[in-house]
Amino acid sequence: MGANSSSISELPENEYLKKLSGAEPISENDPFWNQLLSFSFTTPTNSADLKLLEEATISVCKSLVEKNPRTGNLGSLIKVFLSRTKELKISAECQNHLFIWQAHNALFIICCLLKVFISRMSEEELQLHFTYEEKAPGSYGTECEDLVEELLCCLIQLIVEIPLLDITYSISLEAVTTLIVFLSCQLFHKEILRESIIHKYLMHGRCLPYTSRLVKTLLYNFIRQERSPPPGTHVFQQQTDGGGLLYGIASGVATGLWTVFTLGGVGSKPTPQLEQCSPLANQSLLLLLVLANLTDAPDTPNPYRQAIMSFKNTQDSTAFSSPNPHAFQINFNSLYTALCEQQKSDQATLLLYMLLHQNSNVRTYVLARTDIENLVLPILEILYHVEERNSHHVYMALIILLILTEDDGFNRSIHEVILKNITWYAERVLTEISLGSLLILVVIRTIQYNMTRTRDKYLHTNCLAALANMSAQFRSLHQYAAQRIISLFSLLSKKHNKVLEQATQSLRGSLGSNDSPLPDYAQDLNVIEEVIRMMLEIINSCLTNSLHHNPNLVYALLYKRDLFEQFRTHPSFQDIMQNIDLVISFFSSRLEQAGAELSVERVLEIIKQGAVALPKDRLRKFPELKFKYVEEEQPEEFFIPYVWSLVYNSAVALYWNPHDIQLFTMDSG
């Protein structure tokens, strides 16, 4: 990357990098900085390119770690960056490409160095590296002790104050990425960080007043999904399709500018995937999730989480219910649209979960939307493609459904939304189906997948809880949805009989031998009976609350009536079976009276007539089925590793050596 360098392989020998990491201190006023910061290349926006860059510069970084206590060159570089950011807003307004270009380059180098420093030392050691100056070897500066806070505050100001233009896109992205890197200390600890120097800076002092503006800006970055401008936009216009970007710059920049080196190439064509994505939106969302999941300080709750919990719609003119210094307003319509469009990513689903669970204003708004299918359908697709998704993504999608189904209005409205041609549902052609029936189909499919593959009780419980919440409002169930409800019960019944048979055989075999311990079939039987009871309660809830609205369910029940025989006298199910048994007997009798060989249409007609004739007081009333999602104790033990696994696995703008990671194992994401 020197005057003649043009490839990554030459970086370790680059004269400017060697001087930066060398034994000689460099004053912040030295012309060297103009030379160092005058390189032009497209900033890497994927982890593969950054891996190449890190491998090429690791020797330089290690040398700086060793020499910086004597030279203070890291502090000098940061001061150079800080001095240049003071004019950034004016530079953006005046289209001063050169000034923004060099400020971006300074921040890019700082970010690369920080990532290596943080992965190799404690926060206390890192803080010391910010205090070293070019006085005597190992001496400390008094005025520099807050250089960490000054840099953090500067990055936040840059994000919230610099207008997002083509020429400022790269430096805005770099500022967001650098904040993520600052917080990445967590990656190198197995335990959740509850007291962190960086967290303290962000939750107190000079950074605190920017909390709401930072959260709002990051949300708007996610909402807008601004695509990355064409490569080289933040520098100068290219003269040729693949040519160099170095021109004679008559603005006082020292000679000896770095020539272009390419990672994807400044002049190379971006891939279609990169053309469609927004690195800034992706990184902003990841930073928002990291900030929202920081642990509370001993004396202060996490202000970023407070901001996320309390913001309101710009259309809402009512006063905030309680004084909150971090409250703000945002356009809910734009936020809703972005959430609907971005659910293919884990991080967007996690954001939706957080907003529905923690922000009552967002939850109320979402539940009042008349186009709720735009949000629910992407969530159902996540569950439908369960084989392709990681377990955390599936859990988040399922919990979102559970939260939505806590609302009776939602449970009624989904049966009024009629969908046409659901192309991604492959088991059966669905030319027309209600959103409610589709939701039932997908949740039942998830249960069946879980029974045969993952066997996760938590997944089972939440699926059944969502169905139970909806059951009293089941309306006009599609015949296929009704069939699948009874088919699931059939599957559970077979599993129950199989476990019962295994337990009996095991018990017989053990009578003649005391050598080997018995498998715990009693526990398996208990679990399966809990699930069966839940299914019976769901069917019962539908029959007692909306029998006349669901002839297809009654039809499916009658068609498979033999399934329920074995449970009529079972002590665990006798009470709940009374209503189901009554319905089966009542409608069976009416069908027998109508004669043999009835068509499907005629059977349904008899069922509809019978539903009106059946006295409601004959059906025993049970307590309403209502399940509410409750976050587990110490949710940070789940969410913090999950969020950092998303950061680690993100294809955009960051790379860490997997061998350095302590927070989670590589297969946990």
From TrEMBL:
Pfam families: Dymeclin. Keywords: Lipoprotein, Myristate. The keyword Lipoprotein applies. GO terms for biological process: Golgi organization. GO terms for cellular component: Golgi apparatus. The keyword Zinc does not apply. Belongs to the dymeclin family. This is Dymeclin. It comes from Burhinus bistriatus.
